[in-house]
């Protein structure tokens, strides 16, 4: 029992906890410590099972499958992008954004694994990350890249990277050493083999740091912590360095309680005084847990001791928090890091905002907190931030929440551009978010950002996309009332198109006529052409003729082709005559109009209708040489066609 109380003390010892969490009583033991505090010492099998349970994520099978699929997709995208040479950073960033690839430490490691036999692609990828997001490059990542260079025979590049790693305080891992020396020996690079062995030097001996670390971890993993374990650790007669303790803690990451006991004991026993490096190593281990309490206690203790959180620690823990849906902890971590020396990048702000808006419940307090922390550190939000957030909202069918998002962003001084307002109006209109749309438009007006014609047109476009004719019409009338008709041409075309799709071409004509006569709206030529075609298809011949008059009044040439096609198939002689009068520019229409009509009649086999129309034409047409020649040729063709029958 005395040993068990000491183990608990090692686990729970901490300074005052700055986050607003309830510190557990020494007599209230977390369920994850049951295997340690049980009055009966468990068997090794049950003991190990207890610790394995600590690493199980509380996610459903479907969630795991989705994450795995998403990871595979991102690796495939990276493989495709970086297999192509001569691509600039802007092109790469555009491809990554369009495929929703978010660069994380884990993704960098997985990508390098996939490039193991493609060193050129690996170098392009590594160099791009180095230039654009260097904080993702940890000792582990450098060793992966070094291993790729070494195992593929790039000796010069290998040694160049070794020098870079030395400057950063990174060592060469045993795995990288093994892969590289095998290739160097195969290529008979005796000088490089000798140099590599000298580099790794002492670590090739039986008492190498890796061998020592292995013995320490085996001892801790294989036993329940107690006096005997402590005695055996002391009996190793080791000099516990920062590097050794860091490696031991990393190898115990799946057994965080044992790692924490070892971390506490090593200092209480007087064998080592913890520094920034070992605190960060312990923080990375505790950051893997589903509960963040022990992590935050350690972080508070580290801060009190005057140590900074390393960028690698922040990145790894942030990824773990997000994977476990611990978004509040992720935001608190971001806030903590932003007041330190190693501040997160601006991309981390966007990353967190996107994760918040796609969470099961939209937590506006967390969203606002990230914005506040970001802007209070001297940063400013941009349109790119809003675009990324809106894209995430769309992905979870939560675009109606955008007005709440905009309010929060407004509180820290951000105002969306007119283009962004237009995009939002379109999405809200097309998604049928009436309540959200009303709030959005009202908030725009109340903030002094009066919606312009582009915003109104986008809203009408959204309604038309949804097929809502009533709302589109109401919005168009409101637009003309507020903005006038000078920029309403495109909006009118959208509305006319929707009317016609719903087989309401005549109603569309009435709207166009009203806008021209009452509002002096300059209708687009394409709108007139669309309307003529749809009117003729929907039995609106007379209205189509009226459209020709409207076109002439606004200086457009008459649109003849659909009329000629319509008349040749179904029109009467009176219809044809009315058409020629409608296209008359001066006193009489052009002779070519009549000729085109006659030819169309003959092509469709309607000779009698052509004769009827000719009889009603003006004398100058009936006596025109081209017209007479056309009819004579058609008459001769008919006579020729009947000769065989008569014979």
Automatic annotation (TrEMBL):
Pfam families membership: PPR (PF01535)
Repeat keyword on record: yes
Biological process per Gene Ontology, one example term: RNA splicing
Keyword Transferase: no
Lineage top rank: taxon: Eukaryota
PPR repeat spans: 275-309, 452-486
Alphabetically ordered keywords of this record: Repeat
PROSITE patterns: PPR (PS51375)
Alphabetical list of NCBIfam families matching this protein: PPR
Name of the protein: Pentatricopeptide repeat-containing protein, mitochondrial
The organism of origin for this protein: Nicotiana attenuata
């Amino acid at each position: 029992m005395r040993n068990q109380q000491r183990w608990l003390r090692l686990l729970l010892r901490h300074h005052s906890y700055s986050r607003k969490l309830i510190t557990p009583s020494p007599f209230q033991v977390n369920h994850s410590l049951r295997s340690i505090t049980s009055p009966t010492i468990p068997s090794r099998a049950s003991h190990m099972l207890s610790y394995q349970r600590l690493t199980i994520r509380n996610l459903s099978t479907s969630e795991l499958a989705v994450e795995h699929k998403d990871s595979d997709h991102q690796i495939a995208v990276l493989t495709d992008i970086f297999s192509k040479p001569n691509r600039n950073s802007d092109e790469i960033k555009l491809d990554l954004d369009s495929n929703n690839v978010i660069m994380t430490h884990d993704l960098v490691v997985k990508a390098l694994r996939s490039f193991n036999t493609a060193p050129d692609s690996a170098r392009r990828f590594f160099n791009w990350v180095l230039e654009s997001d260097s904080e993702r490059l940890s000792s582990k990542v450098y060793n992966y890249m070094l291993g790729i260079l070494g195992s593929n025979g790039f000796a010069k590049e290998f040694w160049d990277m070794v020098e870079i790693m030395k400057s950063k305080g990174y060592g060469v891992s045993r795995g990288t050493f093994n892969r590289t020396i095998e290739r160097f020996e195969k290529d008979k690079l005796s000088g490089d083999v000798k140099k590599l062995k000298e580099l790794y030097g002492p670590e090739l001996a039986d008492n190498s740091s890796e061998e020592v670390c292995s013995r320490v971890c085996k001892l801790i993993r294989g036993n329940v912590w107690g006096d005997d374990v402590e005695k055996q650790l002391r009996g190793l007669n080791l000099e516990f360095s920062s590097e050794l303790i860091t490696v031991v803690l990393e190898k115990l990451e799946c057994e965080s309680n044992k790692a924490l006991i070892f971390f506490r004991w090593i200092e209480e026993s007087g064998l080592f005084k913890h520094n920034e490096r070992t605190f960060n190593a312990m923080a990375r281990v505790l950051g893997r847990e589903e509960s963040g309490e022990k992590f935050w206690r350690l972080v508070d203790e580290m801060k009190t001791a005057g140590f900074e959180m390393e960028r690698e620690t922040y990145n790894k823990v942030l990824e773990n928090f997000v994977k476990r849906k611990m978004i509040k902890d992720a935001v608190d971590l971001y806030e903590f890091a932003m007041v330190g020396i190693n501040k997160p990048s601006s991309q981390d702000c966007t990353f967190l905002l996107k994760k918040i808006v796609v969470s099961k419940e939209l937590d506006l307090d967390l969203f606002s907190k990230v914005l506040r922390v970001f802007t209070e550190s001297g940063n400013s939000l941009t349109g790119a931030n809003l675009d990324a957030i809106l894209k995430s909202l769309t992905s979870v069918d939560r675009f109606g929440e955008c007005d709440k998002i905009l309010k929060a962003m407004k509180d820290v001084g951000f105002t969306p551009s007119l283009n962004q307002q237009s995009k939002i109006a379109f999405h809200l209109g097309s998604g049928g978010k009436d309540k959200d749309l009303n709030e959005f438009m009202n908030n725009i007006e109340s903030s002094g950002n009066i919606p312009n014609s582009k915003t109104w047109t986008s809203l009408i476009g959204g309604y038309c996309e949804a097929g809502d004719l009533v709302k589109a019409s109401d919005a168009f009338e409101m637009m003309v009332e507020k903005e006038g008709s000078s920029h309403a041409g495109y909006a009118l075309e959208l509305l006319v198109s929707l009317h016609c799709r719903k087989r309401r071409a005549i109603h569309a004509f009435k709207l166009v006529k009203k806008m021209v006569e009452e509002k002096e709206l300059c209708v687009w030529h394409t709108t007139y052409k669309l309307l003529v075609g749809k009117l003729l298809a929907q039995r609106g011949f007379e209205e189509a003729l009226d459209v020709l008059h409207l076109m002439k009044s606004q200086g457009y040439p008459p649109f003849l082709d659909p009329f000629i096609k319509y008349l040749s198939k179904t029109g009467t002689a009176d219809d044809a005559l009315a058409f020629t009068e409608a296209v008359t520019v001066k006193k009489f229409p052009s002779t070519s109009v009549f000729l085109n009509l006659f030819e169309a009649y003959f092509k469709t086999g309607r000779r009698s209708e052509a004769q009827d129309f000719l009889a009603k034409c003006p004398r100058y047409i009936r006596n025109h040489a081209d017209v007479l020649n056309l009819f004579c040729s058609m008459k001769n063709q008919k006579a020729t066609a009947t000769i065989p029958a008569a014979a």
